[in-house]
Specification:
Blueprint: E1 4-13, E2 18-21, H1 24-29, H2 36-45, E3 55-59, E4 62-72, E5 76-84, H3 109-126, E6 130-138, H4 140-147, H5 149-165, E7 172-176, E8 180-186, H6 190-205, E9 210-211, E10 214-215, E11 219-226, H7 233-250, H8 255-258
Antiparallel strand pairs: 1-2, 1-5, 3-4, 4-5, 6-8, 6-11, 7-8, 9-10
């Protein structure tokens, strides 16, 4: 087990959205993070979603691996972190080593659901808009049956790459239930969500899906829902799945209809 070096604590005032107790090491490792919003965006951007998750950081020319724990109190948010100096290839104390999906490099279902929980807490505090988009690759089963599972994996990876290229650093994308993806668009309203989908669709049109000299079309459907203050990750996903079902039946992506 890696050796624990030291523990540091930073405290954020949730009402004022700023640091009220800082630490020099925090300021060195987490540059330009001055508010709780900054911290949440950084955690989402770097996939640091679960308490205890190891993150490789460089400090003073030496690589460290960071674990953290957080405490969400009524008025404050405490962020405690500690550094591990040993090998990166070690299961961290919380066992959270499955942050990214092996096929796509996106967040796993567990990771993205954890992020949704963080995001719901954030919008409850700050009264901001955020949107969850559930994306389904239609007829992937047919592709697997006609061209083989390697072709299906190829499609999943290609769609994942386009998602990565079109997602902001403050947002997050994960793989969900095999042939689906979840995108969490932070500080994004209905109009911004439709702009994101249109941009993503335009990028997708630039891809010629071909496997072993066989060309085929790929069709996607979207289940869109706004994050609500009283949501849980489960209720949010359920609403997105219901919206996705309606989109498949209606064959349209209408933001007003789906929300």
């Amino acid at each position: 087990m890696p050796k624990l070096q030291e523990t540091r604590t930073v405290v954020f005032d949730k009402n004022l959205n700023r640091i009220i107790h800082s630490d020099p090491l925090f300021e060195a490792l987490f540059e330009n993070i001055y508010t709780l919003t900054d911290l949440n965006a950084f955690l989402a951007q770097n996939g640091m979603l679960d308490e205890g998750f190891l993150k490789k950081l460089s400090m003073g020319g030496k690589e460290h691996h960071l674990c953290y724990q957080s405490t969400d109190l009524d008025d404050t948010f405490e962020f405690r972190f500690f550094l591990l100096a040993d090998s990166w290839f070690v299961v961290n104390p919380a066992g959270c080593y499955d942050i990214h999906d092996q096929l796509t490099g996106l967040m796993t279902e567990k990771s993205i659901l954890s992020l949704l929980g963080h995001e719901i807490k954030r919008i409850s505090r700050n009264d901001e808009n955020s949107t969850a988009v559930l994306i389904d690759i239609c007829h992937l089963k047919n592709i697997n049956e006609m061209f083989g599972y390697l072709a299906g994996d190829y499609v999943i990876k290609e769609v994942a790459n386009v998602l990565k290229d079109n997602t902001r650093g403050s947002d997050a994308t994960g793989r969900y239930k095999g042939d689906k993806f979840i995108v969490v668009l932070t500080q994004t309203d209905a109009q911004g969500t439709m702009h994101y989908i249109n941009k993503f669709e335009e990028s997708l049109k630039q891809i010629s899906f071909a496997f072993n000299d066989m060309n085929f079309d790929v069709d996607l459907k979207y289940g869109i829902t706004m994050c609500k203050k009283d949501d849980t990750a489960e209720t949010l996903i359920q609403r997105a799945e219901e919206a996705l079902t309606k989109a498949k039946i209606s064959r349209i992506t209408d933001i007003e209809y789906l929300l």
